[in-house]
């Protein structure tokens, strides 16, 4: 059986007419850059998250960067984050001319290990960015406790965690600001690039609104040097349609996650995801850890089962960050996970038969190479 990693067509097909109508509406009103469709989405997304403000941006990277800029982070500052993330988290810090300072991840949740946070903080630390990796929130209470002791704001990288819950509260509403990506493959995906910052801080939201629009507080009056980081009108309209599908999609992802857990949970060579008791994971990515990961990936692909790797090289070992001076062994958990992570097909429209086929093939693959096992199940 062929199983794609992701099938966006299957997701769009049932709502195709609504999407076509939404795009037509934007064309009829020529509201392409920012405008009423973006404003409507901002209102709906803030309501969905349960916060006062959502500010639409051109991408998740823009959202992170503008949130940092609005907090006046700049040259000489340090921002603490994790090495197990997409490059954009660190890039946003670098684009403020600040320095990323990494903290290793927890071996079970794959999010920032709060026990290691305190020692990464220096007098130059100006923000902390935990990443809600794969759709599960970091341990925000523990992180906020450290941050509060030092008076440092926490910006959540919620780019993979639309609708995820931490102790009953939505991702993106737990710290000073939350940053979302609506890249097409996300749990809430646009039809192009888009992002948003969520916050309860009206002043911060206003600063971000100004920064995303060339620093202008009114047309052609520029109080700051900003950038063009607005959301497209078409993306706002599309996202407004797709937001209504988000909870249903997340529920189906969770059902697939449960089925994978049941089928793979007792295989000694495979480590399945751990959902912390206070969390509601939304499985943007369902990542297992397997020995001989690259071989397993190739074998599965040859059988028509397409998996991914998120991410093969942790950020501190990327060539671009060579100047930070980290090396092998700097963040052992992140490095071990990067060698073992295998992202299985995960999207709402997967069928039970497809999940079964993936699990069956994966099991036969890992048991064939059993003697080389390097994973230790917890
Ligand atoms: C954890 C994380 N942070 C930031 C981003 C950047 O978002 P975008 O691609 O919308 O710029 C992504 C997107 O993949 C992400 O997964």
What is the topology?
Elements: H1 8-12, H2 16-29, H3 36-49, E1 53-57, H4 60-70, E2 78-81, H5 88-94, E3 99-102, E4 125-128, H6 140-150, E5 155-157, E6 165-166, E7 169-170, E8 177-181, E9 195-199, H7 202-211, E10 216-218, E11 221-222, H8 233-243, H9 246-264, E12 279-280, E13 286-289, H10 293-302, H11 332-340, E14 341-344, H12 352-368
Parallel strand pairs: 2-3, 2-4, 5-8
Antiparallel strand pairs: 1-9, 6-7, 6-12, 8-9, 10-11, 13-14
Pyridoxal-5'-phosphate (PLP) binds near residues 59, 89 and 159.
Question: How would you explain this protein's 3D organization?
Answer:
- This protein is of the alpha/beta class and 378 residues long.
- The chain contains twelve helices and 14 strands.
- The chain has a four-stranded mixed beta sheet. A three-stranded parallel beta sheet has the order 3-2-4, with helices on one face.
- The longest helix has 19 residues.
- Pyridoxal-5'-phosphate binds next to helix 4 and helix 5.
């Amino acid at each position: 059986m062929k199983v794609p990693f992701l099938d966006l067509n299957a997701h769009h097909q049932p709502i195709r007419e609504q999407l076509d109508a939404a795009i037509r509406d934007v064309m009829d009103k020529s509201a392409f850059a920012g405008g009423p469709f973006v404003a409507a989405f901002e209102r709906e997304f803030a309501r969905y998250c349960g916060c006062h403000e959502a500010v639409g941006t051109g991408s998740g990277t823009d959202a992170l960067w503008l949130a940092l800029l609005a907090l006046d982070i700049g040259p000489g500052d340090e921002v603490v984050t994790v090495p197990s993330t997409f490059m954009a988290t660190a890039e946003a810090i670098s684009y403020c001319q600040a320095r990323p300072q990494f903290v290793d991840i927890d071996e079970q949740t794959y999010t920032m290990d709060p026990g290691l946070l305190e020692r990464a903080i220096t007098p130059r630390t100006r923000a902390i960015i935990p990443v809600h990796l794969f759709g599960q929130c970091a341990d925000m209470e523990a992180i906020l406790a450290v941050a509060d002791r030092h008076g440092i704001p926490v910006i959540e990288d919620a780019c993979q965690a639309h609708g995820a819950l931490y102790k009953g509260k939505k991702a993106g509403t737990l710290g000073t600001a939350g940053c979302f990506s609506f890249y097409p493959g996300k749990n809430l995906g646009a039809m192009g690039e888009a992002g948003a910052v969520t916050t309860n801080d009206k002043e911060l939201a206003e600063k971000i609104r100004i920064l995303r629009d060339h620093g202008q507080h009114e047309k052609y009056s520029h109080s700051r040097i900003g950038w063009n980081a607005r959301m497209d009108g078409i993306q706002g309209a599309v996202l407004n349609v797709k937001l209504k599908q988000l909870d249903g999609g997340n529920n189906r992802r969770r059902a697939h996650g449960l089925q994978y857990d049941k089928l793979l949970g007792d295989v000694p060579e495979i480590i399945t995801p751990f959902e912390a008791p206070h969390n509601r994971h939304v499985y943007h990515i369902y990542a297992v850890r397997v020995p001989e990961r690259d071989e397993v990936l190739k074998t599965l692909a040859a059988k028509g089962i397409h998996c991914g790797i998120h991410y093969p090289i942790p950020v501190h070992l990327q060539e671009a960050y060579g100047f930070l001076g980290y090396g092998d062994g700097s963040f052992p958990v992140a490095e071990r996970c990067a060698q073992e992570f295998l992202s299985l097909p995960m999207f709402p429209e997967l069928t039970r038969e497809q999940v079964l086929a993936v699990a069956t093939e994966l099991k036969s693959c890992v048991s064939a190479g059993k003697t080389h096992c390097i994973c230790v199940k917890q």
